[in-house]
Design goal:
Layout (H helix, E strand, L loop, with lengths): L7 H20 L13 H18 L3 H22 L5 H21 L5 H7 L1 H6 L4 H12 L2 H12 L10 H14 L2 H22 L2 H17 L7 H24 L11 H31 L3 H8 L1 H5 L1 H16 L12 H23 L6 H10 L18
């Protein structure tokens, strides 16, 4: 396979999303929610401010950017193989199976893995990759609007006694909490891969991530199709429009999230405000972040140099995503240093920054010596493994469709 030129702005944007993810995970103690009571009152006040700022900036947005770029990566691989005369879809299906295996590794250490969801939802890209841009865009919009939640909302309007079902995911989290706080290493791994994984996947389904992730994958694919990452007057105008649209949608949704609508009877607004409004609000702010990032990238000067410094971190996204869970669980969980007991949001944020710095310099060191990160290389090699049909000498049958 010939080497293709990477898109630097995408790698830098992926690094930015990982930065947001590591900050959120660290403040949450990698899903081990605990607020130390022994902290000084002043630090507790600072913690509240830090947590609000970090969550405002990155909660639900860093993951969304990461998902958007997953769809973009699929497009690049699909296009490159099509130019060589191959249909990438069968290989991509196999690639998602491999990603599911990587997700199991991550799930051993961290009960908030998203790779498993990506591996399942990724099959949607196989279905839609030959659709027209218009068909994909409309489908993505419908999915982003959370159709299932709107059905619940309409039902709640018609039935004032309707009560939204309790989320089952937290029952499974309750089963692993004691183990995460005080269990031995092997006990923690077993709890995470079992009930921890059930918690993570159920939580994502119950909170609309199934529809949202599918939509983001499609938008990412369109980002590649339309070559919106290139620096051109037309594209810069597009991103300015996206920026204004994102701001225009985010502000009313942000204000609306603080109020109940008295005209709605029963629990209708509770349904609306549980998933629909937060999902759309986060997506709108994601558009703001992505548009600002791309526009700043295309603006020559110091910003571009700063962005480029982080490119290696984004190029090793799989390695860094999985390793941050390994490092974080050791730092915060009971089998390791148990920092969940002692650190508030501010201290935990700096821990996250520390993990980022270690991973960043490791990424830069590694990519000076090798063309890919260790897990990226393994994923690629296994993706293109040569298969032999039983009873024949035919190999690589998944290369062609």
């Amino acid at each position: 396979m010939s080497k293709t030129k990477r898109v630097e702005v995408i790698d830098a944007l992926r690094a930015f999303s990982l930065f947001g993810i590591i900050l959120i995970h660290s403040i949450e103690h990698f899903n081990l929610y605990f607020l130390p009571e022994s902290l000084p009152p002043v630090l507790k006040t600072i913690d509240k401010g830090v947590e609000k700022v970090v969550f405002f900036m990155f909660a639900g947005k860093a993951y969304a950017i990461f998902s958007l770029l997953f769809g973009f990566s699929f497009f690049v691989q699909y296009r490159n193989q099509r130019q060589r005369g191959y249909d990438f879809r069968p290989r991509f299906a196999w690639r998602m199976v491999l990603l599911l295996l990587f997700a199991q590794i991550d799930s051993f250490f961290y009960s908030g893995d998203i790779l498993g969801l990506y591996a399942i939802v990724g099959f949607v890209l196989i279905i839609v990759c030959k659709w027209s841009d218009k068909a994909i865009f409309i489908t993505a919009i419908v999915l982003m609007l959370q159709p299932l939640e709107w059905a619940k909302f309409c039902y709640a309007l018609a039935h004032s006694d309707y009560l939204p079902p309790a989320q089952l995911s937290w029952q499974y989290f309750g089963k692993i909490y004691d183990t995460l706080t005080s269990g031995a290493f092997t006990e923690t791994l077993i709890a995470n891969i079992g009930n921890g994984q059930l918690f993570s996947n159920l939580w994502q389904v119950e909170n609309g991530r199934l529809f949202q992730t599918s939509a983001l994958f499609m938008f990412g694919m369109l980002l590649g199709r339309r070559e919106l990452y290139l620096d051109s007057e037309k594209n810069n105008l597009f991103w300015k429009k996206v920026l204004l649209t994102g701001i225009g949608v985010f502000i009313p949704l942000y204000v609306l999230s603080f109020y109940s609508l008295e005209s709605f009877e029963g629990n209708a607004f509770e349904v609306l405000n549980a998933i629909i409004i937060p999902s759309l609000r986060n997506f709108a702010f994601t558009l703001v972040l992505v548009a600002l990032f791309v526009l700043l990238w295309h603006k020559a000067g110091m910003w571009t140099k700063i962005h480029r410094f982080f490119i290696p971190y984004g190029r090793m996204s799989l390695t860094n995503y999985i390793s941050m869970g390994m490092i974080g669980s050791f730092l915060f969980y009971g089998y390791g240093l148990s920092w969940y007991k002692y650190l508030g949001a501010t201290q935990s944020m700096f821990v996250g920054i520390g993990i980022l710095i270690i991973q960043l310099y490791f990424s830069r060191w590694w990519l000076k010596r090798y063309s890919q990160g260790p897990l990226e290389y393994l994923w690629k090699r296994l993706t293109w493994i040569r298969f032999t049909l039983p009873g024949t000498d035919k190999v690589a049958f998944l290369k062609r469709f």
